[in-house]
Queue: 2 jobs
Job 1
Amino acid sequence: QKEVEQNSGPLSVPEGAIASLNCTYSDRGSQSFFWYRQYSGKSPELIMFIYSNGDKEDGRFTAQLNKASQYVSLLIRDSQPSDSATYLCAVSNTGGFKTIFGAGTRLFVKA
Amino acid sequence: DTAVSQTPKYLVTQMGNDKSIKCEQNLGHDTMYWYKQDSKKFLKIMFSYNNKELIINETVPNRFSPKSPDKAHLNLHINSLELGDSAVYFCASSQDPLAGGRDTQYFGPGTRLTVL
């Protein structure tokens, strides 16, 4: 079983729609959860982090965490073509020195 | 003003050679990391260093030797390069991996290594 699983996609949504990205993780001791965005040929950059169960909103982005189900999601509202990228889910265990990344979901937003 | 920098950006070399990649961060962070991203874009942690001390070594072959001369630098030396070492290597840093809200990692631009 992979430690952090994501649907590789591609996920294609029309401009203005909501994009929903999902991630599951296997280590119940995980404490910190991140979503990074990576454009082709570039380095990952942080979109959101979340530590507690529930929702966390930042502009057009909402992260959702359900520790009982070991599930993290990212919603992107009013998707724009500039949101087209690979989205990486990342999970850190207690101690934080080891962050496990999922394989990423490619998102295409069609104009 | 680059927060995390790496050199070189591209590295093309022959099998069997030895090469180094340098990383520097000016964020004042205590923790630095090396990641390998393969052709399938899977980002995998290799090493974590905290205050110049090795914390995590993810079963990386001992041909890979990280060195941290100070908290702001973490270099990666690779001996006897193999074809399978071809990948993009990312350096990253974080302020405090033990503190929620300060464990976000900031990545360098990456070094694309091609072994021929």
Job 2
Amino acid sequence: EDKVVQSPLSLVVHEGDTVTLNCSYEVTNFRSLLWYKQEKKAPTFLFMLTSSGIEKKSGRLSSILDKKELFSILNITATQTGDSAIYLCAVNSGGSNYKLTFGKGTLLTVNP
Amino acid sequence: NAGVTQTPKFQVLKTGQSMTLQCAQDMNHEYMSWYRQDPGMGLRLIHYSVGAGITDQGEVPNGYNVSRSTTEDFPLRLLSAAPSQTSVYFCASRTGRETQYFGPGTRLLVL
């Protein structure tokens, strides 16, 4: 059975702090790993990672994948209150049928 | 493009009632999925479809039916609602190597 584990489950920081969110996985036929941000409504896409060691970056957010150790991290530098959200990690385990397995998410709270 | 649309936004049902959650996408995506999201449980896959006429079960399919008669539509049917089905339901679609797009969600309360 495919498994995606995120840690920590929740995190409280102050504005300006840097945070690292973790995602480890055990899946068959790995194809890609995706990060989403969820505020009050539907998840919105952040990154898709397919290759080890190549950092994806968007503003203060960055992410990297390690396919040997089966994990990914999402970094947020100089956090702002608008970064408060649930961050979801999902793994596409592909094969002949499409399937995304989600972790339980990390609830990030950024206090002013 | 409207993207992925879901109706209704909110629904209250009594135990034993049936209903259909609607999902439509106008991006010509082959893959469509239904998830439910409960506190502390993340997103769990209910059913998914890889094309018109093809559906398969996800992680938590019991109590739900789906069909995919067209590329655009992927309705989720609750056969006999139970309080355990109180949740937020998200429909999603994607194609090829693109990311997955989520609908705005349907909040369901079963009394």
